[in-house]
Design a protein that fits this description.
- The chain has eight helices and eleven strands.
- By secondary structure, it is of the alpha/beta class.
- It has two domains: 113 residues, Mannitol-specific EII, Chain A; 101 residues, 3-Layer(aba) Sandwich (Rossmann fold).
- The strands form two sheets. Strands 8-7-6-9-10-11 form a six-stranded mixed beta sheet.
- The longest helix has 17 residues.
- The radius of gyration is 19 Å and the shape is globular.
Length: 240
Amino acid sequence: MAEISPTRTNTKKGILAREEKGSTAVGEGIAIPHAKSEAVKAPSFAAMTVPEGVDYEALDDEPSNLLFMIAAPNDGDVHLEVLSRLMTILMDEDFRAKLLNAKDKNEFLKVIDDMEKEKYPDEPKAEIKSAEGYKVLAVTACPTGIAHTYMAAEALEKAGKKLGISIKVETNGSGGAKNILTDEEIAACDGIIVAADKSVEMARFDGKKVIRTKVSNGIKIPEELINRIVCGDAAVYLRL
């Protein structure tokens, strides 16, 4: 009988322990089991498609047919960067369809490479905002990881672009806050969307119109949330 390596055993334990905290299925047919382990010496990534789908207790109650697994060393947060990039590009429906229809692993990898080159070119693009600043600001946050954090951020940014409304989103996942909102941006905006399932810094929003909602709503109804801010349909947040 072939001996099972300690690395595989410990990684599997880490993955299962993470799943016990809550399913890593994030909806739209996507599941991303991940874990850090002292047995892992270098970040590793695996992917598979399941055409018929499997029940992974996703937010939208739909089966998962695109599964990605990330194993990372205990030191460093490289897996967080992988997760954030992966969740950003997986919000594209056409991209997911191409992955599911890939004929072999080489085509599957090419689809990912092509999308990464499009989404993350060598020369970063300048951030676009109106002369007056951002009309809408948002904070997305997830307590157990960053998958939902970045899904909500991407959904809000895409909705803002579609509506022609300038928006900036601060993400607050397990790797800490990124793209942090400045005092000047907060002062100039019409209001803030806080799509979070954990505590975020709220005192800075004193006197501004704020919508507080679940991170899943940032994914499901981003246009509705943005339109509510623009129309003034939000309560003024007062610091106690």
